[in-house]
Amino acid sequence: MNSVLQNASRIIVKVGSSLVTDEGRGLDHTAIARWAAQIAALRALGKDVVLVSSGAIAEGMLRLGFGKRPTDIHELQACAACGQMGLAQIYETSFSAHGVKTAQVLLTHADLADRERYLNARSTLTTLLRLNVVPIINENDTVVTDEIKFGDNDTLGALVANLIEADALVILTDQPGLYSSDPRKDPNAQLIEQAQAGDVALEAMAGGAGSSIGRGGMLTKVLAAKRAARSGAHTVIAWGREPDVLTRLAGGESIGTQLLAATGRLTARRQWMVDHLHTTGEVVIDAGAALKLTKEGKSLLPIGVLAVNGEFGRGQVITCVDEAGKPLARGLTNYASSEVRRIMRHSSTEIERILGFVEGPELVHRDNMVLL
Ligand SMILES: Nc1ncnc2c1ncn2[C@@H]1O[C@H](COP(=O)(O)OP(=O)(O)O)[C@@H](O)[C@H]1O
Ligand SMILES: N[C@@H](CCC(=O)OP(=O)(O)O)C(=O)O
């Protein structure tokens, strides 16, 4: 059995609080240095890697002298803000030892629920990857309260996998993988080596957090795999201290639990675009643009647009129709309807002069479009 990481070119790696902070004893420099070395090696192989790291609250508790996890939400937020400094510092140092640049990205649920912010987060992350930077993501705990939190970084990791269409999500934790029941409680628990992501039987096997440091336990990991699979990403759950775990997985070795996505990445994206999004407006495109889209696989540029019907904002889904009104494609627009009315029929080099800013030379980028 080969690892699902073998052919993955874009990978999200999530590390849990107990690993990062050595069960709350303090940032584990050695473990972090090892993951940084492995991620640098993956980058050298041409793979895009995004790290989702927990541990801010656990590290902040230590720095602020809390013996046990505070119950007051604002104290927790203070811990997160304080601990995040430690995370940023140690990742920056560990990656720079390999000549790899890092960037801190703190996200909230609202950022990914809002179409425009979703698109901005996506563009920023993909730009960072193009610039050879490893983005290090955590939830922006300072500005969110319990009701609107992701609550656990397993979910955040899956949402980031959806956001930038990763091929795989690797969840590193303090157990060798998903077991048939919690191995801390059941000595006969068996390691599940492979299963389909989304199989409900897995949810019954997975229990809550085993330590006072971790939050989600195995259940949030199993649910994260289900979510990641929606955009075609496979999930691996493995022990974070397994020597060379990431590079061995990328080399094809099967380690831990592999939860397979049923549909491929492109099929999943196409399905999502076709089924789940309401289109809020349309643009009528000329014959030349229609040909570029349908026959040459190109993006839609403002110059090919003849008219705009309806009102829409940046990041919403629009339909591209030909002059006879036939729908040709659907996709996420980089510009709002009011802006498109001003830049249509113009070359992309004129966008900045007309609008005073540029979101991109394309009106709808090819990666954000499906042909109908
Ligand atoms: N079926 C299961 N298989 C493995 N671990 C399980 C299972 N059910 C519950 N757990 C518990 O989940 C814990 C990992 O989750 P958590 O503590 O949230 O870690 P992390 O900080 O890595 O997210 C394990 O230590 C284990 O005790
Ligand atoms: N944003 C929080 C994440 C908490 C969390 O999800 O922890 P875990 O279950 O260990 O991944 C922090 O950095 O402490």
* CATH architecture designation of the largest domain: 3-Layer(aba) Sandwich
**What does the main sheet amount to?**
8 strands, mixed
How far do the termini sit from each other? Answer: 37 Å
Indicate the overall shape. Answer: globular
Separate helix tally = 14
**CATH topology call of the largest domain:** Carbamate kinase
Question: Would you give an account of this structure?
Answer:
- Helix content is 39%, strand content 19%.
- With 372 residues, the protein is an alpha/beta fold.
- It has 2 domains: 10-269, Acetylglutamate kinase-like (Carbamate kinase), CATH 3.40.1160.10; 277-371, Archaeosine Trna-guanine Transglycosylase, Chain: A, domain 4, CATH 2.30.130.
- The chain has an 8-stranded mixed beta sheet, with helices on both faces.
- Strand 11 (317-321) and strand 12 form a beta hairpin.
- Helix 2 (29-44) crosses helix 4 (73-96), helix 3 crosses helix 4 (73-96) and helix 7 (153-163) runs parallel beside helix 9 (217-229).
- The two termini are 37 Å apart.
- The site of adenosine-5'-diphosphate has 24 residues, from helix 1 and helix 9.
List keywords for this structure.
single chain, Carbamate kinase, Archaeosine Trna-guanine Transglycosylase, Chain: A, domain 4, 2 domains, 8-stranded mixed β-sheet, 5-stranded mixed β-sheet, 14 helices, 13 strands, 39% helix, binds adenosine-5'-diphosphate, G5K_ProB, amino-acid biosynthesis, kinase, proline biosynthesis
Write the layout of secondary structure elements.
Blueprint: E1 10-15, H1 17-20, H2 29-44, E2 48-53, H3 56-64, H4 73-96, E3 101-107, H5 109-113, H6 115-130, E4 133-139, H7 153-163, E5 168-173, E6 194-196, H8 200-205, H9 217-229, E7 234-239, H10 245-250, E8 257-260, H11 265-276, E9 279-285, H12 287-296, E10 305-309, E11 317-321, E12 327-332, H13 337-343, H14 351-355, E13 369-371
Parallel strand pairs: 1-2, 1-5, 2-4, 3-4, 5-7, 6-8, 9-11
Antiparallel strand pairs: 7-8, 9-10, 11-12, 12-13
Helix pairs in contact: 2-4, 3-4, 7-9
This protein binds adenosine-5'-diphosphate and the ligand N[C@@H](CCC(=O)OP(=O)(O)O)C(=O)O.
